[in-house]
Amino acid sequence: MKRCFKLALITALAAITLIGCGKSASAKKNAGTETSSAKESSTTATSNSGSTQQTQASSEVSTEGKSKSNLTGEWIDSALSKKRPLAVMIENTAEALPQYGTSKADVIYEVPVEGAITRLMAVYQDYSGMDKIGNIRSCRPYYVDFASEWNAIYVHYGENIYAFDILKTINDLDGLNGTLEQTTFFRTTDKAAPHNAYMSSKGVDAGIKYMGYSTDLQSGFGSHYQFTADKTPVTLDSGTDATVVAPGYYIDKPWFVYHKDDGLYYRYEFKQKQMDAMNNQQITTKNIILQNCSYTKYDTEKGYLNISAYSGGAGEYITNGKQIPITWKKASQTSPTKYYDSTGKEITINQGKTWVCVILNDQTANVKFYKSEDEFNASK
Predict the structure, then answer these.
(1) How far is CA 207 from the centre of its chain?
(2) 3-state class (DSSP) for residue 317
(3) What would the pLDDT profile of 318-333 be if each residue is shown by its tens digit?
(4) Residue 22 gets which letter from DSSP?
(5) Of 146, 159, 139, 72, which is closest to residue 109 (Cα–Cα)?
(6) How is residue 106 annotated by DSSP?
(7) 369 has which bridge partners?
(8) Which of 282, 132, 301 is nearest to 204 (CA)?
(9) Between β-strands 281-282 and 275-276, what pairing exists: parallel, antiparallel or unpaired?
């Protein structure tokens, strides 16, 4: 009897020991998994282009069917990411307002033309679903250089005489083409010409089909800017305050105001909000790049500018309420403009929309940055 009791007791103790060992091994295995997971989601700080990048869960694995946009660095449909962008000339005068479709652009170039006005070139990865885009205005040679960086199909309504040769090097939709004028473009009756030319998404597709252009992005055209990874915002901690950015253009006198709540800059010009009449939204951007360019004039009579997209030079990168000085280079018509910090390292910019302001190199003193809206308002 006693022997049976002892045998039972020994068996029970052995079982408890085995269970305990099993739990201990499982706990160690789980602990190792948690440590690995913690390492993957740990937060680190790195300095880049005068900025601090907060790295959290730095997984760059795409969700199914998604790829990073070459224009914004954000996740978009993979099929869309392989399509050529559309670069559209948009008038930027008081007579042309309001504009249509500008809030949907991923990148906007603002560049001076004759008469001290500026003209916009809006670059779209996705231009679908828009009934009215514009108004559309004419080409200048340097816009072709910028559009070519993106392998974009370039849309314009006419051109000055100095653009004829450079337009032969690209695929473009010209409103003065007799067939395309009716296929792609239309005029409204609410404004006088030349302020009333527009197009629709369907018209663009019809024009591309008529011209026989491929919509597939050519090999070699990948990410244009160097974007930050997911959840790793560039904060420019060592930069100077730039709550309000005033590029200093004479006619539209634009400015951008940073909103800390959503991290975007809101655009103003002609003493008012710059609105998109398509959706009644104010135009916003995540990044602003000021690019100082050298220039000459083709002629003195009409004042047509010959702005160099290849001269290289200085500028500023602005995001999240801060700005740092930069330099830039562009090697060829189809190569992207590259931007560098004070150490010569290519800058990393935030995911989102980018607004590039080309500043003539003898007008850089007109550029102003303000710490607050109160300071900006006081300056006026």
Answers:
(1) 26
(2) strand
(3) 999 999 999 999 999 9
(4) H
(5) 146
(6) S
(7) 245
(8) 132
(9) antiparallel
Query: What are the backbone dihedrals phi and psi of residue 8, each rounded to the nearest 5 degrees, phi first?
Result: -65, -40
Q: Higher-confidence residue: 15 or 154?
A: 154
Same domain for 331 and 264: yes
User: Is the domain of 259 the same as that of 361?
Assistant: yes
Please choose, from the candidates 159, 174, 162, the residue with its C-alpha nearest in 3D space to the C-alpha of residue 213.
174
Exposure string over 173-189, b if 16+ CB within 10 A, otherwise e: bbbebeebbebbbbbee
So what's the pLDDT on residue 221? 87
- 168 secondary structure, DSSP code: T
Contact 151, 129 (CB under 8 A): no
Q: pLDDT digits over 228-270, tens only?
A: 999 999 999 999 999 999 999 999 999 999 999 999 999 999 9
**Is the pLDDT assigned to residue 68 strictly greater than 70?**
yes
Torsion of CA 133, 135, 141, 144, to 10 degrees: 0
Which of 353, 282, 287 shows the shortest CA–CA distance to 320?
A: 287
Percent of the chain past pLDDT 70, that is, above it, reads 84
Q: What is the pLDDT of residues 268-281, one digit of tens each?
A: 999 999 999 999 99
- Residues 200 and 262 grouped into a single domain: no
Residue type at 340 in one-letter notation = Y
The SS3 of residue 162 is: helix
- Write out the two tokens for 367: 């550029």
Decide if 49 is inside a domain: no
Degrees to nearest 5, angle at CA 307 with 291 and 331? 70
Tally of domains within the chain: 2
Average pLDDT over residues 192-198: 95
Tell me if residue 122 falls in helix, strand or coil: strand
The encoded tokens of residue 360 equal: 């003539």
Here the CATH number for the domain that contains residue 274 is: 3.50.90.10
The residue segments making up the domain with residue 351 are 240-292+301-379
Residue 324 in 3-state DSSP?
strand
Collapsing DSSP to helix, strand or coil, 204 comes out as helix
* pLDDT of 61: 54
- Residue 259 near residue 236 (C-beta atoms within 8 A): no
Residue type, 201: S
